[in-house]
Each structure stands twice: as structure tokens, then as C-alpha cells.
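Project standup — Tuesday

K.O.: blocked on the structure for the chain from last sprint. Re-posting the sequence here as requested.
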Amino acid sequence: MRFDEQAIERFAIYYFSDKDGIVDQYVFTMLDELKKNCTEIMIICNGFLTPESRMKLENLTPHLFVRENSGFEAWGFKEALESYGEERFSRFDEVILATDTVFGPLYPLNNVFREMGSRELDFWGITLFNGSNFDANGFEGSDNYPPYLQTYFLVIRKRMLTSPEFWIFWQNLPTIANRKDLLTSFAAVFTRYFEGKGFRWQAYIDTQDYLEGSNNPLILSPLELVKNRQCPFIL
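H.V.: unblocked you, prediction finished:
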């Protein structure tokens, strides 16, 4: 399925958290770019917001939810999806799950959507964690992970969005108490779980040539990715 960018219906869920409740300018840069490419935006904030930051976000969207600071972005996404509801989401062609953990975009996102719209996929992201056969994150007992999409920017298309498998994944999402749980219950398993259910995926930035040399090019080679591969985000 190739997308007509003029007709596509796209919904973005943006996750934000700050210990002081202050929304910095880089967040608004991202939100402004999402508004250019999306029909609707929902903002999920873990923790709290200052009155000034809340007012600024409410000026961008009526869909602003502030929740307890638990579960990181995974439970923020879960509650956002479940609160809006499967039926209401079914009218959209794509749903974006994005976080405040990256800076950008450094290139217009419409270029990214145009390119990915030409690919026959069910979900996609920007960059890969290239997998590991060692405990790359310092967690005892970690699994060996094949390459997976990094979850700061995921796009879910209608075939997957309206599937029972998609909603069951979120219904069954376990409690996430720390970053190890975030990795082992969400970030490192999302891609392989849905691949195993028959859904097709790709990353926007091709880093196959990094497979032997770097498991995380976004961290270890950001200049090369931005300059030579037009990566729109940096950490």
C-alpha cells in the first residue's frame, strides 16, 4: 500500500516527562513538526507540569493527559491507546508513538513520511539497535537481542493497528518498574514480537553495515548518521 500524503490520516502520541515539570523548547520543535504531518496529537506527561508549561501544551492540543510518573513511556503509550480506544483509532492510517528522549527533527519529517510511504510495511521506526550477544546494558541475565527498532519514534499502520495482536500486546504489558523492565518488556521485544505475528517492518536509516562494528549507531556515530544518512534525530 502506497500512501497519498495529501489524504493520509495520522495520529501522534507524544510522551513527555521532566522532573521539574518544565517543557523545554526542543519539545515544542518536535510537536510543531508533528502538527504539520498529523491530523491529531495527544500528549502524555508522566509526573506533573508547571502551570505555564501546561498552558503551552493545551494551546497545541485538547488531548493532554498528565499521569503518575510510573511505567516510563511504555505505560504512557498503553494508557493513551486504551483511553482513546481501539474503535476511534481504527479510522487512522498511521499512529505515531514518539518520545522526548531525542532532539530534532534536523530534517523535515515529511521527507521521512514520503520515503516510508513508498514501502510495503506494517510498522517502522527511524533507527535500529543492531542487536547484541552480550549484556550490552549492564543487566544481569539479559537475553541476546536481534536487531530491533528503537522505540523513541515508532509508526504503526492500519493493518497492525486494527489487529487483535496489537491490542493484546498492550493489554498484557507487564508492570515496568525500572529501565531493565522497560528494555525486556517493551523496547527490545516490540519489534520481534510483531515480526513473529507476521507484520512487516523496516528502519528509515539503513545501518546494516554497522552490524559488526556498532550495536547503537545513534549513540556511537551520530554525526555520520545525520550528515550522510539524513537521520532526523540525535540523542
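K.O.: great, moving the ticket to review. The first helix runs from residue 25 to 37. The two ends are 32 Å apart (CA to CA).
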